[in-house]
Design brief:
By secondary structure, the protein is mostly helical. Helices cover about 80% and strands about 0% of the residues. The protein is built from 13 helices and no strands. It is globular, with a radius of gyration of 21 Å.
């Protein structure tokens, strides 16, 4: 029995590693693929909605392939869906809006630094909701990761200065929104992990439910947004070519992988994957565009490697009670 459990654990670890590597590659390559195949004329809302539809199709396909589609269909309830996926989806939608407000009112350095605090909030809410503790070494690894993320964001970020006209605007329309967005990001990630690991909600089903909720929010926004007006004036697929589907489908597969990594490895480790992907982006830019990695990237590389190594090597150990 012990040997069987060990083998099962090894298979699970291998699966988690595979999903993490695939997500790192997808997340790292996505900016270059999108830049190459999505024309400037394409309406953002149309590409996002199409991506959500593609996520649903992919998730249904994978569920059918593993034979769980029929069982999930019979067991599905609206209350269960709203509990597991509705709240995280609504939180992510609010988070994205807050980030857009903040980015317009903060310089790139301040925005990047504050935005990386979501890794700490993810660890906090994971402990608060799931009682998943971190060792002292793992907490140190998280701070190393945040430092690396800030360096990478600065290196890849734009050089725009602050557009805020006074301190109050910077505080209330810049700093507060990005901090609230970081808290919401950590909460949503922990809730997704809780739904998949505690409530045993299928990651594929969560992807479907969150995509539907997110799509409904986007459709509602088109009633008043500039994108909605552009769609009504030019059509939904304005500016599209057959090649536009490549980054859209690629992004949809990335959404599936995010669900799998969160389900099997947790939201904190997903943060490690996403930061590592920034290094992949820098490498691909050097290979395909001849753009050498910045000094920030070169300094961040050993920080990322060290943080991942420390986090994996020193997991939290339950203290043994003395006899």
């Amino acid at each position: 029995m012990a040997a069987r459990n060990k083998k099962s654990q090894e298979m699970m670890n291998g699966r988690v590693l595979l999903y993490s590597i695939l997500l790192t590659l997808q997340y790292g390559a996505q900016p270059l693929i999108s830049k190459r195949f999505i024309r400037r004329e394409v309406i953002v809302t149309s590409s996002v909605l199409t991506c959500e539809i593609a996520k649903v199709i992919c998730a249904v396909f994978f569920m059918a392939k593993e034979g769980s589609l029929g069982r999930v269909y019979k067991e599905w309830t609206l209350v269960g869906a709203l509990t597991a996926s509705g709240l995280p989806a609504a939180i992510y939608a609010l988070q994205n809006s807050l980030l857009q407000i903040s980015y317009r009112n903060l310089d790139s350095l301040t925005f990047s630094m504050l935005n990386q605090t979501k890794i700490i909030f993810t660890a906090f809410f994971t402990y608060f909701i799931l009682r998943q503790k971190q060792s002292i070494q793992q907490i140190g690894a998280l701070f190393l990761l945040i430092a690396a993320a800030v360096l990478l964001s600065i290196g890849e970020g734009s050089s725009k200065g602050s557009t805020a006209s006074n301190a109050d605007q910077i505080l209330f329309y810049g700093i507060v929104p990005v901090l609230v967005a970081s808290v919401l990001s950590g909460l949503a990630s922990a809730l997704c992990q809780w739904a998949s690991q505690v409530k045993k909600h299928s990651s594929y089903l969560m992807t479907i439910e969150m995509s539907i909720v997110g799509s409904l929010c986007l459709l509602a926004s088109t009633l008043k947004s500039p994108d909605g007006e552009a769609i009504r004036q030019h059509g939904f697929f304005y500016g599209w070519t057959p090649l536009t589907l490549i980054p859209v489908i690629f992004n949809a597969l990335g959404g599936i992988l995010v669900g799998l990594v969160t389900s099997y490895a947790g939201g904190v480790r997903k943060g490690f994957v996403i930061v590592s992907a920034l290094l992949v982006t820098a490498l691909l830019q050097f290979i395909f565009e001849g753009k050498p990695p910045s000094l920030y990237c070169l300094v961040a590389l050993p920080l990322v490697v060290s943080s991942i190594s420390i986090y994996q090597k020193y997991p939290y150990q339950l203290k043994k009670k003395e006899a």
